[in-house]
Hints:
The protein contains 15 helices and 29 strands. It is α+β, with helices and mostly antiparallel strands. It has three domains: 3-235 and 404-457, Bira Bifunctional Protein, Domain 2 (BirA Bifunctional Protein, domain 2), CATH 3.30.930.10; 252-386, YbaK protein; 476-575, 3-Layer(aba) Sandwich (Rossmann fold), CATH 3.40.50.
Amino acid sequence: MKQSKVLIPTKKEAPSDAEALSHKMMIRAGYIYQVSAGVWSYLPLAYRVIRKVENIIRDEMDKAGAVEMLMPGLLPADLWKESGRYESYGDNLFKLKDRRDRDFILGPTHEETFTEVLRDSIKSYKKLPLVVYQLQDKFRDEDRPRYGILRGKEFEMLDGYSFSADQEGLDEAYNNQAKAYRNIFDRIGLNYKVILADSGTMGGKNSQEFSAPAEVGEDIIAYTDGDYAANIEKAESKFTGVQQTAAPAPIEKQATPGAHTVDEAAESLDLDPNQVIKSMLYIAKMSEDEYQPVLVLMRGDDEVNEAKVTNALDCEELELATEEDAEKYLNAHPGSLGPVGVGEEVKILADNYVKVLVNMACGANEDGYHYVNANIDRDFRVDQFGDFRNVKEGEIAPDGQPLKFTPGIEIGHIFKLGTHYSSKLGAQVLDSNGRLTDVIMGSYGIGVTRLLSAVAEQNADENGLVWPDSIAPFDVHVIPVNAKKEDQMAMADKIDQQLTEAGYEVLVDDRKERAGVKFADSDLIGIPIRVTVGKKAQDGIVEIKIRKTGETVEVKQEELVNTVGILLKQLNEEKNK
């Protein structure tokens, strides 16, 4: 393919608002074009990469027994209202009305729609298990779209769904999908971790996340050098608290003017911050019309893990209380909240590390005052103890090794949904005994366009993109140094023909540009192998450069096809190590 015929608008500089390396380089290399905040056009090079990613996905999904289909992106809101997600999904949901004032959404995911199709199409367990998937654009009204195509309002996603009549069928489908995802990411050439994750708004209780370590990752992966890895929302560490043995002292109220944080209260009271209780008030949505105020107690140096609290309460949503909520339930403002004297209408949860403390300080539910020497049971109640904190780097993981932290990009997620959706939407089949039973579901997703950012973040350098050979837009970039030289252009055309006939995809830079511009653009574009046709063309010799390593070698034209094959094979082997 001639480069002069392809839309590749390279740039010397990245936009000033581009923060991530992948964002900068994909803009500069002419892969993407911003239409609006969070909305992108995928130019020819990017679209070639996407198609290759899609083909890898299709191949592995076929091997896993999944069948491709396609759902609409414009969805009636009725099913989402029935499942409860029309309201609970939050502001990220695009909502609209048609000319007849009927509610619609732009699909951010398709659990409800696939469940409806199965509900109306399959009535017997004999037709199950079934695994279906689609490759489709999704829509989420991100508040802060950023990092280019890493977090946008429209993006392509693989979403797959399994339907089984029993738990064994779900487990088999889930394990097959987990294997397929590993194969997909291995073939693409990503460094990734499989981690324990929270299901969030997807529902269900069991899930695994596939995360690619990268500096711009918005998730934190807690992992060890062993076999433990988890999203920070799910991560656990071994409990090391020691029961304090001091005798309970009389509780006292003390003035703490201007003390709104744990550190300020500790300084005012001349206490260690770990002896001061952090009291966080939340409002939990338990059902459509039921809301529960919840006070969460933490040791002063710990942070609340809201996902763990949400799971412990089994609530639909959990939001930090407003100042008005704090006044309503505790007659005070944040910074002075505490558990002493709190009524039964407020549920009190305490982290396990609070359980071992004696003579604690806590807010007095009166602005500017704290209690000292407060003790559990004598001065305040706790309705439920548990692990409600974020782990810290260096703590000991369940596998006995120290935890390490790294940012990561979520590239895939698999869920055991169980009957979360089928029970709400009436998706039932007759089992082997002739009884109606709720279909057991799994949900599986890969951010297709997000994968481009993840690969770029892990492989790009200061000169541009570096694509793994499996998804590169072309295999070989042929550059005649001087397009005005007939011998160079003739050799470039011959090389193009030879490589194409050998099954390689070739881009020939036939532009009448200076050699320096061509080489800079070639590095930006990031094709694995570059073949330069220069002054030695008259001797039948060309230079090969490996984009990833910068290594160069000169070969005769008749040896070129074999040499390119060897080099690409070596790159593929290194990718899979």
